[in-house]
Design brief:
The protein has helices spanning 7-24, 70-82, and strands at 28-32, 42-45, 51-60, 85-96, 110-114, 118-120. It contains two helices and six strands. This is Na(+)-translocating NADH-quinone reductase subunit F.
Length: 125
């Protein structure tokens, strides 16, 4: 049976992709929040104990996964600075492999557009 993935399932797929990258890069997870709209999704530390807030966003076709809400990010930068944390943004583009205008289906192939973790500078604009 095929069914359309809902927004939470697409978000979880994006989080799995980003989580695997963080693991490969040697980050240690402090907290994980998979709820849509709750930020950050990952709180982790590197080998020097630097804290990172990782923002994950699943983006459907035709939107650009590398774009984020700049105004909202300014307020989040303040939050990160208060916690002595650096920020990574991870936009994960997902689309149906057969037809980009159709939704992604459960257990069906999809196309991934992911440029990796983007470092967000904490200096306020």
């Amino acid at each position: 049976m095929t069914r359309i993935l809902n927004k939470q399932e697409l978000h979880n797929l994006a989080m799995n992709i980003v989580g695997e990258e963080l693991e490969k890069k040697g980050f240690e997870f402090i907290a994980i929040n998979s709820q849509i709209g709750k930020h950050p999704q990952f709180v982790c530390i590197d080998k020097s104990n630097q804290r990172y807030f990782v923002l994950v966003k699943a983006v459907g076709y035709p939107d650009n996964p590398n774009n984020y809400d700049v105004i909202w990010m300014e307020s989040f930068k303040k939050h990160a600075a208060q916690h002595n944390a650096k920020i990574f943004y991870a936009g994960v583009g997902l689309r149906n492999a057969e037809d980009p205008n159709k939704p992604i289906l459960f257990n069906q192939e999809y196309v991934l557009e992911y440029a990796g973790l983007q470092t967000i500078t904490l200096s306020l604009n």
